């Protein structure tokens, strides 16, 4: 656990992404929860050492499993964007099978435990902005979209700290499969304009806003290459040649390069669909 401000703690070592805890005067507010049950229990134990006050809220920065599965281990209302509620409320057998398929190669015991999960729905939702004020510090929720339609940021204006969710990822290739890449670029621009001293990304260590630049560059590059491909009359199935060009386009440690080509191809397919829809709207 890292203490990054007087009342703000984060954990960056869990499988699936970063989590945070904001100690307001009336109790803790969590930002996302761990993917794996053992990590959720570990995080819960760590939090018990910080305060005896009950957890007030769990904020989810989007609706993907790596941010929400651990909600089942915390007895607190979930706060999320209204689109997150729409997705989570629709999760059925296909979603849970996807989760099992994700977890089995990582943790067989975790995959087996999925049958016992009762995933709480978001109980408090918003559209554009929300302020949670339970004494200091003030917690602002801002809808940015981008990585997913429901992606939000959590901003602490007093400390100038921003939890970005997966709109900012370090040391791992961004996942564009549910993204609106134009909106994502706008979100990154908005983040750079905010009064922020420290970013807590969805993946990777705390950073400052300059860390958003490589991601913006990567998204612009992939959009430009796919647009040229589309305008040349090539099909989605012919995107394979672009995969090789993009392998080294985003800084990733060697240890995180497993499955890189497959993820790049998924990203290309998503952007191709975006460009195709945009072109149709123009005609």
Describe this entry's structure for a reader.
A hairpin with an 8-residue loop joins strand 9 (139-143) and strand 10. The radius of gyration is 19 Å and the shape is globular. The mean pLDDT is 91. It starts with a strand and ends with a helix. It is of the alpha/beta class. The longest helix is centred in the last third of the chain and has 23 residues, at 260-282. The strands form 2 sheets. It has a 7-stranded mixed β-sheet with strand order 1-2-3-4-5-6-7. It has 2 domains: 2-209, Metallo-beta-lactamase, Chain A (4-Layer Sandwich), CATH 3.60.15.10; 216-282. 37% of the residues lie in helices and 20% in strands.
Helix fraction by DSSP (H/I, runs of at least 4) = 25-40%
What is the name of the CATH class of the largest domain? Alpha Beta
Spatial order of the strands in the main sheet?
Answer: 1-2-3-4-5-6-7
Class of secondary structure makeup: alpha/beta
Low-confidence stretches: none
Query: Judging by the overall fold, what is the CATH architecture of the largest domain?
Result: 4-Layer Sandwich
Which fold does the CATH topology of the largest domain refer to? Metallo-beta-lactamase, Chain A
